């Protein structure tokens, strides 16, 4: 499957035929690696984590409201991470949507030099990798308990 952001929402397409499977109300989306989950940033600032088998919400990411255009699942699909338009890295439990960690990133490298949040990658070693405007990748240890043992 493929997710495409349009003016009418997030369109989910079948990769083999490019036929539309469904449209979700949203601003951006990201699939988990195995394709069984998709995270959709909704206009109301919530993030819905949907099962692709039945398109029902598995969880709604709650906590601090923000708009995050780059969503990323951990390798085991247990966590969802994003950097919001406020420059805060947030990590949620993908099974129930609770906020498990947040970290304010350096404002000057996020807010003053970017028009949108940078992408984030959650690693199996417990780090969030985030690009910055100087073409560097910063590694942040997010949460010893929530990311350990992925």
Describe this structure in words.
The protein has about 150 residues and is mainly beta. The protein has one domain (about 1-145): Methylamine Dehydrogenase, Chain H, CATH 2.130.10. The protein has two helices and 14 strands, in the order βββββββββββαβββα. It has helices at about 105-110, 145; strands at about 1-5, 10-15, 20-25, 30, 35-40, 45-50, 55-60, 70-75, 80-85, 90-95, 100-105, 120, 125-130, 135-140. The strands form four sheets. A four-stranded antiparallel sheet has the order 4-5-6-7, with no helix packed on it. A four-stranded antiparallel sheet has the order 8-9-10-11, with no helix packed on it. Strand 13 (about 125-130) and strand 14 form a beta hairpin.
Termini separation: 25 Å
> Which structural class should the secondary elements be placed in?
mainly beta
Mean residue pLDDT: 79
Q: What's the CATH H-level homologous superfamily?
A: YVTN repeat-like/Quinoprotein amine dehydrogenase
Tally the beta strands: 14
Q: Helicity range of the residues?
A: under 10%
Q: Which CATH architecture is right? A: 7 Propeller
* Count of folded domains: 1
Please work out how many helical segments DSSP would assign: 2
Trace the largest sheet across and list its strands: 4-5-6-7
Shape: globular
As residue ranges, the low-confidence spans are: 108-112
- The radius of gyration computed from the alpha-carbon positions, rounded to a whole number of angstroms, is 15 Å
Largest sheet: 4 strands, antiparallel
Query: What is the fold named in CATH at topology level?
Result: Methylamine Dehydrogenase, Chain H
Order of helices and strands: EEEEEEEEEEEHEEEH
Assigned CATH class: Mainly Beta
- Assess the beta-strand content as a share of residues: 35-45%
């Amino acid at each position: 499957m493929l997710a495409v952001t349009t003016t009418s929402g997030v369109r989910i397409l079948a990769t083999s035929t490019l036929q539309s499977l469904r449209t979700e109300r949203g601003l951006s989306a990201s699939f988990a690696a195995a394709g069984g989950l998709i995270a959709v940033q909704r206009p109301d600032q919530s993030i819905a984590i949907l099962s692709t088998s039945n398109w029902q919400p598995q969880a709604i990411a709650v906590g601090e409201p923000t708009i995050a255009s780059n969503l990323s699942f951990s390798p085991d699909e247990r966590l969802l991470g994003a950097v919001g338009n406020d420059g805060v890295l947030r990590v949620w439990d993908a099974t129930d949507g609770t906020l498990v960690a947040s970290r304010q990133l350096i404002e000057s490298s996020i807010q003053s030099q970017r028009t949108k949040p940078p992408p984030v990658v959650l690693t199996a070693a417990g780090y969030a990798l985030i690009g910055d405007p100087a073409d560097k990748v910063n590694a942040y240890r997010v949460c010893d308990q929530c990311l350990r043992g992925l």
